[in-house]
Amino acid sequence: MSAEPQPVPAAPDPERKTLDDRARMTELERIRHSAAHVMATAILRLWPEAQFAAGPPVENGFYYDVDLPHRISPEDFEKIEAEMKKEIKANNPFEKIIVTREQAIADAQSGRLGGLAGRPGNVSKLKIGNLEAIPEGEPISYYKNGDFLDLCAGPHVMRTGNIGAFKLTSVAAAYYKGDEKGPQLQRIYGTAFKNKTSLDEFLKMQEEAKKRDHRKIGAEMGLFAIDTEFVGPGMPLWLPKGTVLVEELEKLAKETEFAAGYVRVRTPHLAREKMYKTSGHLPYYADSMFPPINLLEEKDREVRDQLVEFRSYLRRGTEPGYVEHFLEQFKKSSSYSVGAMSQLETIAAAYAADKSNKEGFEQLDAQIDGLGERYYLKAMNCPHHHRIFAAEPHSYRDLPLRLAEYGTCYRYEQSGELFGLMRVRSLNMNDAHIYCTEEQFADEFRAVNDMYLKYFKIFGLEKYQMRFSTHAAEGLGKKYVNEPELWKKTEDMVRKVLIESGINFVEVANEAAFYGPKIDVQVWSAIGREFTIATNQVDFAVPAKFGLTYRDKDNSNKTPLCVHRAPLGTHERFIGFLIEHYAGNFPLWLAPDQVRVITIGAEGDPASAPLIQYAKDIVNGLRAQGVRVAGDYGSDPMKAKIAEAEKLRVHTMLVIGGRDLEAGAVSVRLHGKGNVGSKPKAEAVADILAAIRERRA
RNA sequence: GCCAGCUUAGCUCAGUGGUAGAGCAGCAGUUUUGUAAACUGCGGGUCGUCGGUUCAAUCCCGACAGCUGGCUCCA
């Protein structure tokens, strides 16, 4: 991929790290940043023509983007790592050199920058682009280790030998400066640590994450299936055992929301185009909605087919007289209205006058589109909920009104984005919209945050963070609704509540929703991986577009604020997260298979008949209490039955044999924990029921 | 959508230019048990789809689809 030297926009990049930000790099980040330079050094020794772009430390390691005709594959890693080891062993110092912009441009022109030596005819074009992004007045510096000279603001470790342990991990494609239109580079990922022990720990965590992969465990446990052939990619089917998880989560949410004063509603999965034109979603998000369903009556269908044909003739260029002929035929055969027909004649006339007439085509397209009704699959529930608000008149006495629904939404995510349950095209949201006055906002918002914290506790999530996304003034009218004052006012309100309630949050600019500020909730799983599971937004714009009002005390009509919140996010992503978090070993209240009664003795064997009856009584008793329980009365050896139940991750196994029957006891075995001993039957049953009721961890 | 890799039985994976194998699972028997696997037998595959090269393609080539890892995106 040999890219032309790229023109780079000189506009200041809001994402760009300042020199102060960089100076705060942790020791580990310095090690990784330095490892990126060492990797570049190694790659240049193997392929001297390589061109480098950027090589920063990232969350789990580092990468360097390289432009190189040779396609680097994991087979090359060993070779690169061997060269890296040499450079580390040489223990070269990282030398900082301050230069002028002119000097830097000259070194890039000669190919010296980002190389081991001058490379005549091989301009360091990506580095020139990087140079242009450095604001005037900011010092320009190089770092040099051995022969490798790189444009770099640092900081680094003192010497290459300070990189204790490293490993190259993967190679992927990346755009230069993240610009889809820019050249595509090879991004080589690696990780580095201060010593081998830490590296091994990290690799072990990666292994553990692999074992906990929700796609793998989901298949093993029979939770969900993705039938790409008949249903479609990104549209999971919930199997019976996965449905248990879905419904337990719904039950939890319904109880919690009922207690918090929510009311439930239900809405269809489709709506007319007008809905999303009004909400503003269509102009902003048309690309990620499924294309519309066009409802055409028979006569409209005919007209449409004729118009489409007419259009394609016009586009192709027609024989003289065709247009007139077509219109003649059209008048005779169709039920098209006189007004529309005369418009069509106008288009044809305009076309005759100017064959490149773009406007005419647009009018024709609009006519074709205007036929029939278009329905869209909903990509979010809010517009439907707004119409529920609009369905009845409201007074300030009705507020806050909290409408909750497990709404199914459909989003046409790009094919490359789909990922197991984590990124899907059909999703079930734990959705609710709170309509309230400005005065009520703080209390409502605080209550929503409390609900999050309550859930975190139930699922044993110790680490969380809220990402508070605000707008950027440049995006007003494009990415964001053009209401600068409302933006400021709402963001201030949100920030105030976050600070007052001591919530752990960070603020990020320019990532808000188009209608208001957004909060993404990040949590960390049991093995320390981050997931964004929920989102929470304030909407000051769309209720007004739908003309939603309530009658206030002073007898005037006012527009309510709307808080969008989904603490459990979508079932799909949340369950995906829970699978990793619990490694499939769900607590009793969630476990698809809660209890299995295993008999030492088989059904059909007369000697075991009393034992089997005892077992069945236990099973029936638990089932009557709503416990998901099964009995294994087969002739397999007990060890085999246990192995089977363990493999299925049955939470509690009640093993019973002659001894238990005599004592009126059961012997309790917990998944993953082994035999915990014998207990009176009634006690064991009471324990199980209590653990489920309390949603014990 | 873009780049790269991958696609053989329900699952995990062997294998070959001459139309395929193992283990587990499944099914049928036998066995009758104290905390992770008792024995025997049987069935199961258009080797992702479509096209090309070849006397012959699961294998070589191409297109498409899907998956995986990234990039971009995420109301």
Q: What would a concise description of this structure say?
A:
Helices cover 40% and strands 22% of the residues. The protein is α+β, with helices and mostly antiparallel strands and 697 residues long. The strands form 7 sheets. An 8-stranded mixed beta sheet has the order 11-15-16-23-20-19-17-18. Strands 1, 2, 3, 7 and 8 form a 5-stranded antiparallel beta sheet that branches. It has a 5-stranded mixed beta sheet with strand order 25-24-26-27-28, sandwiched between helices.
Key features?
RNA-binding; 28 strands; eight-stranded mixed sheet; five-stranded antiparallel sheet; alpha+beta; globular; 23 helices
Largest sheet composition: 8 strands, mixed
Q: Tell me the span between the first and last alpha carbons.
A: 53 Å
Helix content: 40-55%
Morphology call: globular
Overall pLDDT, averaged?
Answer: 86
- Tell me the fraction of residues in β-strands, as a range: 15-25%
Structural class: alpha+beta
- Report the count of strand segments: 28
The number of helical runs is: 23
- Low-confidence blocks of residues: 1-15
Main sheet: strand order: 11-15-16-23-20-19-17-18
Query: From the alpha-carbon coordinates, what is the Rg to the nearest angstrom?
Result: 32 Å
